[in-house]
Amino acid sequence: MAIAVVLLAIAGVRRLVRQRTIRFRRLPPLEAIGDAVGRATESGTPVVYITGWGGDMGRPTTMASMAILSHVARHTAEYNSRLLVPSHDPVVASVAEDTIHQAATLAGRPEWISNTEVTFVTQSQFGYAAAVDGLFARDKPGAVFLLGSFEGEALILAEGAHQCGAMTIAGSDSTIQLAFFLVACDYTLIGEELFAAPGLLSGDHRATMAVLAQDWLKYTVLFLLLLGTAALVTLHFDPGPMLAP
Fold first, then answer.
1. If we measure between CA atoms, which residue out of 43, 30, 53 comes closest to residue 188?
2. How many H helices and E strands in the chain?
3. Considering only CA atoms, which of 138, 144, 190 is closest in space to residue 37?
4. Rounded CA separation 50/153 (Å)
5. Does residue 168 contact residue 183 with C-beta atoms inside 8 Å?
6. Which of 106, 109, 134, 218 is least enclosed, having the fewest CB within 10 Å?
């Protein structure tokens, strides 16, 4: 299967080189980023960005989250809104701060940095969740982004954001925590969509080729499963003798 993904990715890259264009399925959570930041701006409330408790800078989910943070920060800088980034890890907090500084420079609003707050909270999982929930209760953010590696604190944070009336956009590669995000959040990036997001936001379609190849592979496998099932039904195949002890 891995070889099939690589071959499909190569085929996609060649197609991209020939056609210079590529069509990728819509990701509503990415399209809603501007609306979320705009909502916070109109209500005079801050934007809160959370990378989760479950990852450090060595995790692909955290790296993807930082790339999305850059895009969110540029929007927030353009609207001159407050941006709060509570972190569970000092290294992640430092990288987030650098990312926000670069985004402010690219947006042409370096003075906006004074309107941001990146803090290291604690490395305790539920201590971190309690601190962030306290932030929700005090500051009543208009938009909350939950993008990265999450564990048992996922539902606590998502429900806290919902209770304060924030528009929530979430994403993770954890199948367990995604179930909570899908229920409690307005928009959710599912699995590899989180890794495709940076490429789509930056306009670098080459970064999305691996994900696109996985999509093609999924469609191919689904087609083969349906075709095989139809063939078995048509031939009246009886698996009984094969399953007998």
1. 30
2. 11, 6
3. 144
4. 12
5. no
6. 218
The model's pTM? 0.80
What is the architecture, at CATH level 2, of domain 27-204?
3-Layer(aba) Sandwich (3.40)
Indicate the domain borders of the chain. 27-204
Q: How far apart are CA 221 and CA 154, in angstroms?
A: 32
Q: Which residue has the tokens 């408790």?
A: 53
R_g of the chain computed on alpha carbons = 21
